[in-house]
Amino acid sequence: MPRRYFPTAFATFAALTTLITAQDTVRLDPGDPATKASATSAATLKPATQENVIIYKEPGRYGGWPANQGLWQWGDELVAGFTATYYKETTTDHRIDRTKPSHRVQARSLDGGKTWKVEPDQPYSDRKNEPKAVPLKEPLDFTAPDFALMFRFGSLHTGPSWIYTTHDRCKTWQGPFTFAVEGVDKICTRTDLIVLGKQDCLMFGSCGKASDNKEGRVFCARTTDGGLTWKLQNYIGEEPPPGGFAIMPSSVRTKGGALLTTIRRGKPEYCIELWRSDDLGKTWTKVNDVTSNIGGNPPATVLLPDGRLCVTYGFRRKPSGMRARISSDEGKTWTPEVILRDDGFDGDLGYPRSLVRPDGRILTVYYFNGPRGEDRAIEGTFWTPPVATDR
Length: 391
Known about the structure:
The chain is mainly beta. It has strands at residues 17-19, 44-45, 49-56, 61-64, 70-74, 77-86, 101-109, 117-119, 148-155, 159-166, 174-178, 193-195, 201-208, 215-223, 231-235, 246-253, 259-265, 271-277, 285-292, 300-303, 309-315, 321-327, 337-341, 350-356, 362-369, 376-384. The chain contains no helices and 26 strands. The strands form six sheets. Strands 1, 4, 5, 6, 7 and 8 form a six-stranded antiparallel beta sheet that branches. A five-stranded mixed beta sheet has the order 2-23-22-21-20, with no helix packed on it. A hairpin with a 5-residue loop joins strand 21 (309-315) and strand 22.
């Protein structure tokens, strides 16, 4: 039986075969000086325990962007989604061969993440032959034991977005289904959900900005009829100025009922923000910045069994790798950075998804590179926070 709480384990997945499009070419933010600067943090921490695993690695291939896909668990059965394309040495952002096809694939583990097997593409993996999206006809049961939902989008800036569902632990998917939120235009969202009941669910997404029709602004919407209709709860923060963006929320609900949402910000901040709502998303207050100057990477946020908040992210400065910060007071204060990895070849890495295993360990899945430049893989880290993490 899977956990019935889906802040980040309920994540995006699409198994489709396409040429690389705007939604895949996720920026490295090369204009950010942080991508070239060296880290100068005065204090860092190490995990109490740590184990790295390989999920996908093939010669000449490039695995990328789990945050755009998904990570699910049902006991010891885990499914991770990601993009598999082809490596090419370039001087631009991602070292990919844009003349070759890209595949959205998934890997499954039946032993709690020790070993993984890549599964074939789903029947709808060719976007050119993908059926036209239709409305949902029957309400969804968000609490069904083997159910998962993912969002997929077209244009990175203007959408639209669609829903896909699975009722058998990601073995088969249904969709695409149309998705709309009353009062919100240009929805281009990944998946971030908090289930409130059988047919009651909050989603946190991104949409294009009114000022320049570019990504993005974050909003919260709610369905109480099993996904047939969605209504806007509110936007989270003001619309960023032209050239800036707020995207890729990752959200949890505390035992007390508060919503905590971390958001990736673009220039000039290049930070991860934390926002709080105590009325199920109707009003929002910024708590603080979790971290800044990381070179542009989304957060993966989970609640630990003891109630602490954990945010993991890719660190695209030097030394590049994976890092995390932990809060014991719902984000008011944060530990120094926990260094999960600092052995990346360059800053083309990160985009994590995280979940908490039944034994209390965190599993963070991300794309990584090194020790050689052509090594571009999907990897995972099982880890536990440092024993003393209070500031």
